[in-house]
Amino acid sequence: MLKALELSGFKSFADRTRFEFPHGVSIVVGPNGSGKSNVVDALKWVLGSQSAKSLRGQEMVDVIFNGCATRGPLGTAEVTLTLDNQDGQLAIDAREVHVTRRVYRSGEGEYLINRQPCRLRDIRELLAGTGITTEAYCIIEQGKVDVLLQSSPRDRRLIFEEAAGISQFKAKKATAARRLERVEQNLLRLSDIVDEVESRLRSVRSQAGKARRYRECATRLQLLRTQVGLVDWRAFTKQITAREAQLAELDRRHAEHEAALAKLEAHTLELDLAHETSAHARREIESQASATRAEIAALEAGLESQVARRADVEQEIERFRRQLVAMSTRAGSASGQLRNSAADLAAAAAEHAAADQEYRAQLEQSTAAQQELNGLRASLEQLRTEQMQAVRNAALLANQVTALDSQLVAARVDREKCRQRLDELHEQRDSLAAKLAQLQRQETAAQAQFDACQAERLSSEGRLAALEREIVRVDKQHRQLESQLTRTRERIDVLTELHERLEGLNSGVKEVLVASQTDPSGPYGEVRGVVADLFHVDVDSAPLVDVALGEFSQYVVVASAGRLFDWLNDEPLRVTGRVGFLRLDSIQRRGEATPLVDLSSEAGVMGRADQFVETASDLMPLAERLLGRTWFVDRLSTALRLAQTAGRGLAFVTSDGELLAADGTLVVGPRQASAGLLSRRSELRACHEQLAALEKQLAHQQVVHARLENDRAGEEQQLAAKSAKSAEFAAELAEHRQRTAAARGQHEQASHAAHRVERELLNIQEQCAVNEYEVES
C-alpha cells in the first residue's frame, strides 16, 4: 500500500529526496549518521506525530534543516507520503493518495491530502482501520519490540485492536459518546433556558397586565383631567363675569371721579386767574425794576466815563506840570508859554471841578436807585412766597377734599358689595354643604362597589394562578413525554436499523434470508424466517427465552422439506456461514410427543418456557419442541433441586440468566440484556407499543393543555374585564374623592371668605364714619 516517501528540508534531507517502495520488502541501509532514522521520523511526522521528543528534538521547528558549513538553513520542511489506492481501501476517489505535512520556521504548519488543505483529524479518519498510524504496530522503532514484549495486557490489546481494524470504531464510539455528552449538556442548558424563559414569560405577562392597566389608568386620567379642565373653565368663566361686573363698577366710579376732577379743574382755573393777576403785578414790578436797573447801569457807565476822563485830566495836568517845570528853567522866551500854560491850567482846573461835582451828583442818584431797587426786589420775593404758599394750600385742600370724597364713595360702594358678597357667600356655603354631603354619600357607595370588584378580581387572579400552575405542570409532563417519545423513537430507529441489517445473525443465515426475500419462487420460498422473528415474548422474559433457545434462535424455519431439500440434494449450499434449518412438517405435535412434565406447583418455579411465548397456531408445536422441556425458576438452588427430583431431560433457566441444561451442563456468569436476537425483537415490539402509548398520552396531554389554555384565556379575559371594571370603579372612586375634596375645599374657602368679608365690612363701616366726619369738618 505504501508507494513512496518524499522529503524536502526535513532534518538532514535539505534537497528534495524521494524513496520508492515497490511491492515486496524494501530495506534502507547505510552507515551510522546517514539519516536512516530520519526516514522513520519522517513517516511518524507526516502521519501526525505531535511529540517533538519522539522526533529527537526540543520543538517542532527542529525538524527543519538547520544548515551546515556549506549551506544555509531552510525556512520550511515538507514530507509527502504516497499511498496506492487502486483497491479503494481508502475512502477517497483517487488511485493514489498523497498525504503532506509542512512546517515553517515561524512555527506555523499545515496538512494536505492530494494537495488540498485539510485537518489532522481528516488524515486520521482517512487512515483509520488501515493500521497506518503513529500508535499502531506499523512503525516499530529501535527498542520497540522489547517495549511490546514487556507491555501490559492493556497496551497489547490496543495493538491487537488496531491490527483487527476495530480501533477506528472505538474512536468513533468515543467521539459519538462525547457528542452525546455534549448533546445531553446542551439539552440540560436548553431545559434551564426554557425554565428561565417560562419564568420570564410569567413576569412579562404580569408586566403586560400592568401596562394594560397603566394605559387604562392613563386614559381615565386624561378624561378626568378634561373634566377638571371643563370645571375650571366654567369656574373661570364665572370669575371673568364677576370681574367684568367689577370692571363696570370701576368704570362708573371712574366717571364719578372724572366729574369731581372737572370741578377741581374749575377751581384750579380760578386759582390760575388769581395767579395770573399776581403774575401781572409781578411783571409790572419787574419792568420797573428793569428800568431802574437800566438807569443805574447808565449812571454807572457815565460815572465810569467821568472817572476815566478825570484820570485823563489828571494825567494831562501832570504832563503840563512837568512841562511847566521844564519850561520854568527857560528864560526869556518861555515867559509867554508860561502865561499860556497858566491859562490852560486854570481852565483845566475849572473843568475838573465841574466834572467832579457832576460825578458826585450822579453817584448820589445811583445810590438812591440801588436802594429803591433792593426794596422792590424784597417786595417781589415776599409776593412770590405768599403766592406759592397760597397755591400749595389750595391744592392741598382740594386734594384732601377729593380724596375724602373718593374714599367715602368707594367705602360706601365697597360696603354694599361686601354685604352682597357676604349674602352670596352664605348662600354658596349652604349649597356647598349640601353638595358635600351628597358627594360623601356617593363616595361611600363607590367605595363599596370598588371593594366588591377588588374581591372578585382577587378571586379571579387566584383561579388564574392555579390554572398557570396546572399549565406549568402539564407543560413539564408534556416535555417529559416528548423527551421519552424522542428516546423511544431513537431506540426504535436503532433497533429497526439492526433488524433490517440482520445484525446478530451469522453471514450464512443472512444470505438465506436475503435469498428468500429476493426470490420467493426459488428453493428458499418455503422459509418462514428465523426462530427469533417468529416468537413474540415480552421484554422482561425475552432474556430468559434467549438463554433457553441458545443457538436455536438463529435457526431458519421452513414449512416443509419440499424444494429446499431437493435442491440441497442436487448441489451443495454455497453460503459463507453455517445455517440451521427447522422443518415444521417433521416436528411432532403435542399429542404425538412424549407427555410434558408439569412442575408449575413446585416452589420457586416461574413457569414453562413455551408458555412465555406467543406465536402463530401452526408454530406452537415448534415452541413446544424448543421450549417445552425448559422451565424458568427463581434461583440456581431451585434448578439444582428440581433437576435431582424431576429427573433428567429437563432444562432450567434462572431469573439471573443461569442455564442448567438437560445433560447437566451449567452455564453461569453475567450476560448482556440485549445480547439475544429475541430480546432485541421483543424490545422493538415493546418500543412500538410504548411509542403508541406515549403518542396517545401526548395527544391527551395536548388536549388537556389546550383546554387549560382556553380556560386560562377565559380567566385572563374575565380578569381583564374585572380589572377594567375595577379600574373604572377606582377612577370613579377617585373622581368622587376628588369632587368631595374639591367641595370640602370650596366649602372651607367660602367659610373663610365669609369671615374675611365680614371683617372687611366692619373695617369699611368704620372708615366710612371717619371719612364723613372729616368731610363735614
List keywords for this structure.
14 strands; elongated; alpha+beta; single chain; six-stranded antiparallel beta sheet; 777 residues; five-stranded mixed beta sheet
Give a written overview of the molecule.
By secondary structure, the protein is of the alpha+beta class. It is built from 13 helices and 14 strands. The protein has helices at 36-46, 120-127, 144-150, 153-164, 167-328, 334-500, 507-518, 531-534, 542-549, 562-570, 620-627, 636-646, 677-776, and strands spanning 2-8, 17-20, 76-84, 96-104, 109-113, 116-118, 527-530, 556-558, 581-583, 605-608, 630-633, 651-654, 659-660, 666-667. It has a six-stranded antiparallel beta sheet with strand order 2-1-3-4-5-6. Strands 10-11-12-13-14 form a five-stranded mixed beta sheet, sandwiched between helices. A hairpin with an 8-residue loop joins β1 and β2. Mean pLDDT is 76; it is low at 588-593.
Strand content: 5-15%
Instruction: Tell me roughly what share of residues is in helical segments.
Output: 55-70%
Structural class: alpha+beta
Overall pLDDT score: 76
Strand ordering within the main sheet: 2-1-3-4-5-6
Reported for the largest beta sheet, the result is: 6 strands, antiparallel
Tell me the layout of helices and strands.
Elements: E1 2-8, E2 17-20, H1 36-46, E3 76-84, E4 96-104, E5 109-113, E6 116-118, H2 120-127, H3 144-150, H4 153-164, H5 167-328, H6 334-500, H7 507-518, E7 527-530, H8 531-534, H9 542-549, E8 556-558, H10 562-570, E9 581-583, E10 605-608, H11 620-627, E11 630-633, H12 636-646, E12 651-654, E13 659-660, E14 666-667, H13 677-776
Parallel strand pairs: 8-9, 11-12
Antiparallel strand pairs: 1-2, 1-3, 3-4, 4-5, 5-6, 7-8, 10-11, 12-13, 13-14
Helix pairs in contact: 5-6, 5-13, 6-13, 9-13
